[in-house]
Structure formats: structure tokens, C-alpha cells
């Protein structure tokens, strides 16, 4: 099956303006993201952006194609759907423009576990620290016993009322989503729901309409950049997990 990676990169960000262009270990964040997925077993990598400045930065390095998109999209998934509508592909892998992975081998693993098995799936991993659970920038996910996602929230879920005596395992979302192309287009055509707006989590639109959201658990090292303080964490990540030459 043919898979294309689309990386949405929006210039404006309420928490960190011009985030894709922030200097991370000597080069813009968007280039760090792209360098870590180069060599993935996909047909093509495309950056979807509303910023001519981001376009120029990416094209100057020649890492991949850039497609200009509408500035009116409210979420990255709608932005990639605009690009996907014109593609000949079976699956779209959405790698967020602020998501750093250790290397392209992680993408290979995602595709092996998700393509042909789920129409829509999100990556998730453990959220063991109290700081992560309290951080509203971190989206927590609640999988069922089969690994499908039941709910997503910026608050810790499930809530421990105090009577449960066992260990509670908490999970957080990783900013990588896999879509069957047609399911992506159907999702994007759905009217956004209040639940999506309340939590500020775009995939809640899918759950709100009763569509299935698969989960792909990973313990591979990842990090993302949401706020200014995350830049130092990202630079440490890049140092700790250097790309092989």
C-alpha cells in the first residue's frame, strides 16, 4: 500500500509563535523534524504550511515537497486533508511539525503495525510522571483493553476516586496519526464538535461522531515542542539520540 507522510507546519501558535522556525540545536525545528523521518519507507514526504517563510526554509534544504494550504484551518488534521485530497495514496501518516522521533525506524514500525489494520490510529506512550499528568499541554489518552482509544483529555484520565488500590497506568498521545486516506477526508468533512473545542483535541471530533480510533502503543523515544521551555528538552533529545550518518 502507498503511504505518504504529511507534516503540518503552522506559523502562528498561541503558545509559541513561529514555532516551526525556532532554532533547535542549530537549525529550525521543522528541519529537525524532517531530518529524523528521512529514509522512512514511504512514497513521499510533504510539508503542509500556510507560511511562505516556512516554505522557503524547507525548500532551501531540498528535503521534501512543500504545499501551501489555507490559513483558515483550525487544526493540523484539516490542513493535511487539504493536501491528501489531491494525492494518490492509500494511507496518510501525519507527523506533527513539532514532533521529534529518534529516527526513521520508528516510522517503519508504525506502518508495519497500522497500515491495513486500522482506518485511523494515534500513537500513544506512557505518562508516568506527575508533571506530565498535570501539564495541560500534554494530551492524555484512555485506551480500552483492545488498544482502541476511548477518550482523550488534557486532564489525567482515568480519575482515581480513591477506592482503587491497584496501580493506575496513565498514557499520553504522541503527535503521529495514521489515516486511511478516505477516512481522513471523511473526518475533515465532519462539522467540528463542541467536545473538540472544549478540550482543544481535534481527534475528539472523530470519537464524537462514533468513529473508531485505534491506538498504537510505542515505547520508542519521542519528544515535542509546545512551549519555550521545551526547546532545551528538544536539544537534549537530539544530543542523546543522534542520527546515524
Give the structure's gist in a few sentences.
The chain is α/β, with parallel strands linked by helices. The chain has helices at residues 29-35, 52-61, 76-84, 104-114, 130-134, 181-189, 194-199, 204-208, 230-240, and strands spanning 3-9, 23-24, 27-28, 44-49, 65-68, 91-95, 99-101, 120-126, 140-143, 149-153, 171-180, 214-217, 222-224. It has a single domain (3-124, 173-240), classed as Spore Coat Polysaccharide Biosynthesis Protein SpsA, Chain A (Alpha-Beta Complex).
Number of strands: 13
Order of helices and strands: EEEHEHEHEEHEHEEEHHHEEH
Note poorly predicted spans.
Answer: none
Q: What is the gyration radius calculated from CA atoms?
A: 17 Å
Give the name of the CATH architecture. Alpha-Beta Complex
CATH topology: Spore Coat Polysaccharide Biosynthesis Protein SpsA, Chain A
What does the largest sheet look like?
9 strands, mixed
Question: What percentage of residues falls in helices of 4 or more residues?
Answer: 25-40%
Shape category: globular
Tally of helical runs: 9
Strand content: 25-35%
Structural class: alpha/beta
Q: Tell me, what is the CATH class?
A: Alpha Beta
Q: Distance N terminus to C terminus? A: 28 Å
Count up the domains: 1
Q: CATH superfamily name?
A: Spore Coat Polysaccharide Biosynthesis Protein SpsA, Chain A
